Amino acid sequence: xxxxxxxxxxxxxxxxxxxxxxxxxxxxxxxxxxxxxxxxxxxxxxxxxxxxxxxxxxxxxxxxxxxxxxxxxxxxxxxxxxxxxxxxxxxxxxxxxxxxxxxxxxxxxxxxxxxxxxxxxxxxxxxxxxxxxxxxxxxxxxxxxxxxxxxxxxxxxxxxxxxxxxxxxxxxxxxxxxxxxxxxxxxxxxxxxxxxxxxxxxxxxxxxxxxxxxxxxxxxxxxxxxxxxxxxxxxxxxxxxxxxxxxxxxxxxxxxxxxxxxxxxxxxxxxxxxxxxxxxxxxxxxxxxxxxxxxxxxxxxxxxxxxxxxxxxxxxxxxxxxxxxxxxxxxxxxxxxxxxxxxxxxxxxxxxxxxxxxxxxxxxxxxxxxxxxxxxxxxxxxxxxxxxxxxxxxxxxxxxxxxxxxxxxxxxxxxxxxxxxxxxxxxxxxxxxxxxxxxxxxxxxxxxxxxxxxxxxxxxxxxxxxxxxxxxxxxxxxxxxxxxxxxxxxxx
Length: 492
Fold this sequence. Notes:
Elements lengths: L19 H8 L8 H7 L3 E6 L4 E4 L1 H7 L15 E3 L12 H8 L6 E6 L5 E6 L2 E4 L5 E10 L1 H19 L3 E6 L4 E4 L1 H7 L3 H4 L15 H10 L4 E9 L5 E12 L5 E10 L1 H38 L3 H20 L8 H5 L3 E2 H9 L13 E5 L3 E2 L2 H19 L9 E9 L2 E9 L13 H13 L3 E7 L2 E9 L12
Parallel strand pairs: 14-16
Antiparallel strand pairs: 1-2, 1-7, 3-4, 4-5, 5-7, 6-7, 8-9, 8-12, 10-11, 11-12, 13-15, 16-17, 17-19, 18-19
Helix pairs in contact: 9-10, 10-13, 12-13, 13-14
């Protein structure tokens, strides 16, 4: 960028009045008095003059600095800038700029905002104040223009507009208050969160949003603000317009004026209701998982310990444990819901008939007559928690023994399972037919007897009996209906 070291004389132009009167004025000028061009050169704002055709006749140092160049006197027209643009970025021909319009319309054309581009590509936003000059006879002799640099003001305005747009479009509640706790600003996010419109709440104390048992929070927050401190992610509770409470995460920071004095506070409040609900569900899931895993380990240990009492060989033990654990796994799949919501998992249960069909499925192939080997009739009840595990193990033992020694060991053998409700008891009757001749088996301390004592008597509050009829074994299992429970009841 270059700037003139000396400025040419103004030629025919002088003050607003020019010509003969101007000459007389010069003739009578006080020695040492300032010429108009001297005054213009001394001004801190960019000032330049043109003749009636718009050719530049004078410009001061501030104008050369603003333009980033020193235009040629008598050649450059209307403005000394390299290029001109409208504020929205559209090109602005020099012949259409405010100075050109002022000369063409012979009247001032003041306060228009334009953008001047320098030769180095940088741009400056200015307000133009062109004013035509006339001689004593009213003839247009030129014009004078002042360019006021408002670049910083425009940038600040754009940033303010951008900030306002961000605040208004934010999902978070953004609220400003003065040091007395009076709300002075309220965005759409605050309206959505708390239910008040800006017209309803601005001018009211922020304590309007605070539950009575938390009134002591506001004085503490204001004292921190007056000390220039911020409060980040403070979790608390606020009251909506309809009276409902909402859990929020609150950040508060001081607002300062141009002098740096604290004049208020800005608050950003975020609804954390869903986050808290998710945390609670996660906590429930973890508790449930921990509970189930401990139960499974305990149960697996019991199965191994009980199975070894009746096993003769290692292979017998491995087979027995594997079969019983598989039965438990099948039963467990009936209690796992499709959803992962902890609240729904708590209520998940299974029906007794579904459990019976699942455990008996490996044995339910058609006999020669074409009918199913397993018949299931009677009442269907809901099982959950420890009851599912207990029934799964019992049914597995019934089926395994029937497959080894009873009706299911014969191709034509069948099992009839009937469920009846008798007052506060549920009675399951297992009847085998078509198997080999049954001989009474005391079962001693076998797994079935041990399981009966531990499960039927202990967990289910019932009784189990066996009748060894020649046609087939009959087992009657009665359990207390109030022991059929919910998931988690008695499972640990």
